[in-house]
Amino acid sequence: MTVVSSLTQELSGLLDRVPGSAGAAYGASDGELCMLVDLATADDLDMLGLLPAGGLEAAFVSDRSHVELMADVLELKLSALLVATLPWLYRVHLGRGFPSAYFVRTFRNWMQAVDRCLPPESSAPIHAVYRWILENHDQWMQLAASPLAGADPEPGPRQALQARFMGLLLDGAQVECIQLAQANVRVPAELGAFHAQVLAPALREIGRLWEIGRVTEALEHRASAIARRTVEALYPMMAPPAEKKGRVLVTAPSHERHDLGARILADLLTGAGWKVDFLGADMPQRALLHLVKVNRPEVLALSLAMPSNMMRVKRLIELVRQEPGFRNAKVILGGNLLRSHPDLWRTLGADAFAEEAEGAIPILDGWWAGKAR
What we know:
This protein is mainly alpha-helical.
């Protein structure tokens, strides 16, 4: 059994002892919990001495993401997700100058906040989870230091094209990125392969470099913005075929700002003959439910990248399925989070998951063919 498997098994046992009422109480107290941890950090002179420049603000942002993630982990019993996320959390902070002692102090603050905010019947099992996290501090440090898988080193035309495209993204060469894409995507049928084999892997590699502190947040954002402009520049070649299929709503739901994959999917679906409503990122739940009610789509496609958005997506799917016009429709999920945890879509209540935008097309076409029979 690997270290990760052993840790996941241990955590599963602890999460099984957390009653649903305790997980709900934690989620309902997220604002107070976060405030207490923020205050404990700001009042701790020794802690402040550990933080790099700008570290206090970064710690506050991290606290808000943490409380949302833990609420979902406790409620959905997602041991594998938490075990995978903690080394990532360590790696990102260590790469930005946070010392290892920061994590020890922070998790102790969370334990104290849980004890102060929640009644004993809820705080005790959740405190045990945090104590386990703290006791495995050395394991998280070792896993964070483990080499990350990078871009495919094998030579080949697609790998070379991906490396060139990534270099242009990092250089901020917007026009050159668009020209390279247009030179390699001359017909709509080539669009999916370019996205799946060049653009998406290049962005994931840049994300990996950001994670280990070799690329700044500003450069990562610039690369994403140029990638979006590149996708937009390729859109005019999408001539919808004569065949018309059903309607699809494609979006990244509330609190989810990563929608480039959703945009790519929307473009590919348009080329495949679907009637597409692309709604962009951070779509408010109420507005989305209204559009589902009015447009009665055959499919709702959601992009999920942030671990802290799992319960929002799960509840959204539950609400969408209550709409009378959606009873026979389908939900498909995509996004980097689900690529790393391929069984999570079932827990969230979806009908399918696509690892890449191109892979969603045959799934939706199969649903449409079954409906047409």
